Amino acid sequence: MFLRRLRSKPQKPAQSMVEFALVLPLLLLVIYGMLEVGRLLFMYSIVATASREAVRYGSATGLNVAGGVKRYKDCAGIRNAAQNVDFLGVIEDAAITIQYDHGPGTAVFSNCPPASVVNGDRITVQVTAQFVPLVAIVPLDPRTIRSSSARTILVNITVAGTALPPPTVAPPPPTDTFTPMPTFTPSFTPTATNDYTATPTLTSTATNDYTATPTFTPSLTLTPTLTITPTGTATITPIFSPTATPVNCYFVTHGPITYPATTMTMSIQNGTGSPLIVKTIFVEWNHDNGHKVGDKTLHLRSIVLAGVTIWIGDASGPSLTFSYVPSQNITLPIGASDIILIFNQTYDNAETTDRITIQFDNNGCASYTLDSAIP
Fold it and tell me: What CATH number should be reported for the domain holding residue 306?
C-alpha cells in the first residue's frame, strides 16, 4: 500500500530546470542592458560636468596654483580640471578642446594658450568621450558623447568709488541772546526865563519954579517857565531767521534693480534720520528690446515712490531715457522704501544699461546722487 502511494506522486525535477534554463538568458540580457544604459548615462554626466568644471577654472581671475600663469592661459590646469571628475577614465587629454571667441555668434580667434584676451572674450571647452558596449549582444550602438561649455573672461575689473566723509554732527539750534537796552530817565533843570522888560528910571529936572517930582523904583518879578519831556522805555522784539539743518546723504543706500512682471523696482534705505526732498528722478531702460513678443517698445506709464504715485504719463521714445522733475515737494521717508517704474507690458529682457538715479534737494546733498549703477 505505501509503495503504491509513493509511485503515484508525480516527480518532475527536470521540468523546472528546463524552464529556468529557458528564462535565464533573457533575464541576464535585461540585467546587462540595464547596466549598459546606466553606464551610458554615467558617462554623459561625467562629460557634461568635466566641460563645466574646465570652463569654470579657465574663466576665473588670478593666477594658477603655481602662481606663474593666469588661469585662462593655464592649458594644463584647464585639462586637469576636466579630468578630475572622470571617475571612469573615459576622457582622453586629446579629447579636450580649448578655444576662445569674442562672444556668442563670433568666430574662434585662438586656441589655448591665447596671445591676448580682453574683457568680454569667452573661453569655450569641449569634452568628447566614446561609448562602446562591453558585449555586442546588447542592442546599443557605439556613440560619441560630446559636451561644450562657455564662459566670459574678466581679465581686470576697475573699481571706482568715493570715500564716505566722516559723519558730521548737526549743530545745536541757535540760542537767542537778549541784550537789554538801557532805559534813560532824563533830568531836567528848570531855567528861569526873564520875560520882564525894564523901564528906564525917570529923574526929575529942577527948574526955577521948583516942582518936586516923585521917583518911582519898579519891582522886578521873575516867572520861571518849566518844560517837562516824558520818559519812555524801549522794548526789544527778537526776529528769528530759520536755518535748514544739514543732513549726510551718503547714508542713503539702494539694492539691485529687479523686474517683477511689468515693473522695474529698486529698494532704497534712508539712514539719514530725516525725510529727503526729491529734486530729480532719472530713468534709463531698454526701450526697443525690452519685450520679446508682440509690441517690442516699452512705454513708461507711472512712477511710484514709497507707495505714492508721483507721476502718470506715457514716456516711449525715441530716447531710452526719461527725466522727471517734481512740480511740488515729494519726500523720501526715513527707513526702507521702494521706487517702482510701471511699464505698459512685461519687462522680460533686462539689460545692463538699465539705470535709476535720484538727486535730493536737502542741505548737505548738493554733491550726492543715488545711482543704481554704483553699488
Answer: 2.60.120
Mean pLDDT across 104-108: 92
* pLDDT at site 204: 45
Q: What is the DSSP string of 209-253?
A: S----PPP--------B---PPP------------PPP--GGGEE
Q: State which residues form the domain around 144.
A: 16-152
Q: For residue 242, give Cα distances in angstroms to 21, 123, 174, 175, 312.
A: 106, 63, 9, 12, 35
> pLDDT digits over 55-75, tens only?
999 988 888 887 788 888 899
**What single string gives the DSSP state of each residue in 287-327?**
TTTS-SSS-----EEEEEETTEEEEEEEE--SSSEEEE--S
| Residues present in the chain in total | 375
Alpha-carbon distances, residue 128 vs 42, 72, 143, 146, 314 (angstroms): 14, 21, 11, 4, 54
The model's pTM is: 0.39
Please give the pLDDT value at position 352: 61
Q: Are residues 255 and 127 in the same domain?
A: no
Domain shared by 137 and 253, yes or no: no
Backbone torsions φ then ψ of 4, nearest 5 degrees: -65, -40
Task: Choose the weakest-confidence range: 19-28, 126-135, 158-167, 265-274.
Answer: 158-167
Of the residues 84, 119, 152, which one is the last residue of a structural domain? Answer: 152
Q: Do 352 and 285 form a contact (C-beta atoms < 8 A)? A: no
Residue 191 falls inside a structural domain = no
d(CA 225, CA 303): 85
| Residue 25 belongs to some domain of the structure | yes
- Tell me how many domains the chain contains: 2
Residues 143, 29 within the same domain: yes
- Determine the Cα–Cα distance for residues 341 and 331; give it in Å rounded to an integer: 17
Q: Name the domain boundary from 128, 152, 176.
A: 152
